[in-house]
Amino acid sequence: DAKTTQPNSMESNEEEPVHLPCNHSTISGTDYIHWYRQLPSQGPEYVIHGLTSNVNNRMASLAIAEDRKSSTLILHRATLRDAAVYYCILRRRSNDYKLSFGAGTTVTVRA
Amino acid sequence: NAGVTQTPKFQVLKTGQSMTLQCAQDMNHEYMSWYRQDPGMGLRLIHYSVGAGITDQGEVPNGYNVSRSTTEDFPLRLLSAAPSQTSVYFCASRGETWDGGYTFGSGTRLTVV
């Protein structure tokens, strides 16, 4: 399975943007890029996903590099409620039953 | 509210005891799965189901059994608890739309002493 690489941690100030990078240099053409986040003492929560084009939703934006070997999750205005562990995950239709969670990026938001 | 409900939220077991972790969803989702999360680590898949009557093993299935008699419920059974099964357990489900996100429950924190 293709792997993802994320920084262990990032810090941000409240109301500032947060850019979370994810490297997936061995991604295949059929892999979708998904992001989940896990708030303290809660289960993971779906954030956003994309294949080739940039995507926006009410929670975040996903910017995908043209060669698809990396992507960036963008939180436009961080709030204290955005403090969580963010996971970048590749999903493939052929083995979709499994989400492969790595260690993720722990985001700290300073008031 | 629609979602994935897990019970109990907390449980302490003695080594060798058995128990069942309950998971129920009211979204008519076909796909359901169980994960465990150990401290400071990501989630690992235990078992999953693609529909009623169909289950399969994930990456860490030893010591756990599952069954899926209805679309709504997907219980996880520990037959003889061991300290190595101390963890937080999450149940997840998703619908038929392939690229939709999974919905996770809030977890069961299990301690085996």
Describe the structure.
The complex is a heterodimer of chains A (111) and B (113). With 111 residues, chain A is mostly beta strands. Chain A has a five-stranded mixed sheet with strand order 1-9-8-3-4, with no helix packed on it. In chain A, strands 2-7-6-5 form a four-stranded antiparallel sheet, with no helix packed on it. Chain A is globular, with a radius of gyration of 13 Å. In chain A, β6 (61-64) and β7 (70-75) form a beta hairpin. The relative contact order of chain A is 0.34. Helices cover 0% and strands 47% of the residues of chain A. In chain B, β5 and β6 form a beta hairpin. In chain B, the strands form two sheets. In chain B, strands 2, 4, 5, 6, 9, 10 and 11 form a seven-stranded mixed sheet that branches. Chain B has a four-stranded antiparallel sheet with strand order 1-3-8-7, with no helix packed on it. Chain B contains no helices and eleven strands. With 113 residues, chain B is mostly beta strands. Chain B has strands at 4-7, 10-13, 19-25, 31-37, 43-51, 54-57, 64-66, 76-78, 87-94, 103-104, 108-112.
